[in-house]
Design goal:
18 helices, Rossmann fold, 469 residues, Helicase, Ruva Protein, domain 3, 5-stranded parallel β-sheet, alpha/beta
């Protein structure tokens, strides 16, 4: 594969490029001396990746990453800073850097990152041209049409066919394992096993044996040889859930497996080679764990090659109806029951709930509702007794009218208009007058919100004119 690399380096940093060139075949490098020259070159030509070796005389790493992303968002930016550390890595990654590496001799790591960046860049360019097949089986695992879920789906489509390690992050119950399974199904390894390991479920001595296996007599109770999860996942994928809970001593052994693709069973000196794609998951901020000394920095970078964040359900409430339908089909099929349906009031209520337990809580709620509904085909709000402590702040129920109708009647148009005006004004106050944010808060199109505001203004002006007359 031909790789076009743009490198901004100072005098004395050429050994890094020489080490990179020795590791990559088909590498063509254009070298400039300043960050400004690199940005000009990026404007004039197409490159597969951009490497900036700091310190550079005219740019800080933060400003350079932001400007490079503005100049060409499709070209991955890699940063090397010998004096940098974990804080810089986290900050620059959030700003849009594809990869960050520190240390004096990072050639081998940078070579791997450049190769991954090149593949990612070319896939991204293909995606921008509309490639992709909507009928791929792995897509059925990712339910949702919100912007957040479309982004997750696109990342899975891009990285699935690659060998690169994926770090899936997100709150408990968001569906991280389902995303990991989608990554596996989207790869050429999909016909081979996905082996899942919960790193928080076992004590350290048993977790090591679980991952790498053991021989007879390795410890008390080891009455025979046992194949570990890495061997079981050979040529397939291993999913390391709750990776943040892995003990530090075991982290060093995992790092060796990722670097050398080999390990030893517990109690054995025999080296075993494996070809395994690693997908890890965490519900905490691993960068914070690194800063606290509870997680190895080098392992963090090895695992966090492609970060993939799964959004909480409260940030994608428009996906709730799709998820409810998906879970109804799944549960009714498992229980051999007639397919259930939901009333409009039910979906409206579920779509306003905050779901602190995320997708897992929603699935459990649907399962309970089906059980409580008996032989009824339609599910009603009463079938979903949601915990009151987590109820939405503004939940309009259908049980009691918000406005009482007096015996002598009322002006319906005026009453509805007043309520509508109060809702719009409250949303605008909460968003500081930002109409787009107010429209999003009220689940309205911005044009619809603008039309309603104009109608209210025109009505107020008309009323004022009539009063003046």
């Amino acid at each position: 594969m031909e790789i076009r690399l743009l490198a901004s380096t100072r005098e004395g940093q050429s050994p890094i490029l020489e080490e990179i060139a020795a590791s990559l075949q088909g590498l063509t490098t254009e070298i400039v001396e300043t960050g400004s020259q690199a940005l000009e070159a990026l404007k004039a030509a197409s490159f597969d990746s951009l490497l900036a070796c700091f310190p550079l005389p005219d740019w800080t790493p933060d400003d350079f990453v932001e400007e490079a992303r503005r100049v060409n968002a499709l070209t991955p930016v890699l940063i090397h800073d010998a004096a940098g550390g974990c804080r810089e890595a986290v900050r620059l990654t959030k700003l849009g850097a594809f990869h960050y590496v520190s240390g004096a001799s990072p050639g081998r790591e940078l070579a791997g990152a450049i190769e991954a960046a090149t593949a990612f860049c070319r896939d991204l360019r293909e995606a921008s041209c509309g490639s992709g097949r909507p009928d791929e089986p792995w897509r059925r695992l990712l339910v949702g049409q919100s912007k957040a879920m479309r982004q997750v789906t696109e990342v899975v489509r891009l990285v699935g066919p690659r060998r690169c390690t994926v770090m899936v992050s997100g709150e408990t119950g968001t569906g991280k394992e389902m995303v990991a399974r989608a990554v596996h199904m989207a790869s050429a390894r999909s016909h081979l096993p996905l082996v899942a390991v919960n790193c928080s479920a076992l004590p350290e001595n048993l977790l090591e044996a679980e991952l790498f296996g053991h021989v007879r007599g390795a410890f008390t109770g080891a009455f025979g040889n046992r194949i570990g999860r890495f061997e079981q996942a050979h040529r397939g994928t291993i999913f390391l859930d709750e990776i943040s809970d892995m003990p530090l001593d075991l982290q060093a052994k995992l790092l060796r497996v990722l670097q050398e693709r080999e390990f030893q069973r517990l109690g054995s000196s025999e080296t075993i080679k494996v070809d395994v794609r690693v997908v890890a998951a965490t519900n905490v901020n691993l960068a914070d764990r690194v800063a606290q000394g509870k997680f190895r920095e080098d392992l963090y970078y090895r695992l966090n090659v492609v970060p993939l964040n799964v959004p909480p359900l409260r940030e994608r409430l428009r996906d709730v109806p799709l998820l409810v339908h998906h879970f109804i089909q799944k549960i009714c099929r498992q229980e051999d029951l007639p397919l259930r349906e939901t009333s409009p009031e039910t979906l409206a209520r579920l779509s306003r709930y905050s779901w602190p337990g995320n997708v897992r809580q929603l699935e459990n709620a649907v399962e309970m509702a089906i059980a409580l509904s008996g032989d009824r085909i339609t599910l009603y709000p009463s079938d979903f007794p949601l915990p009151p402590a987590f109820a939405p702040k503004t939940l309009v129920t259908t049980a009691t009218p918000v406005v009482a109708v007096p015996d002598d009647g009322l002006d319906f148009e005026a009453m509805v208009g007043g309520i509508e005006k109060a809702i719009l004004e409250q949303a605008l106050r909460k968003t500081g007058g930002n109409k787009k944010q107010a429209a999003d808060m009220l689940r309205l199109k911005r044009t619809t919100l603008a039309a309603k505001l104009k109608s209210l203004e025109d009505g107020g002006a008309k009323a004022h004119a009539c009063a003046a007359v």
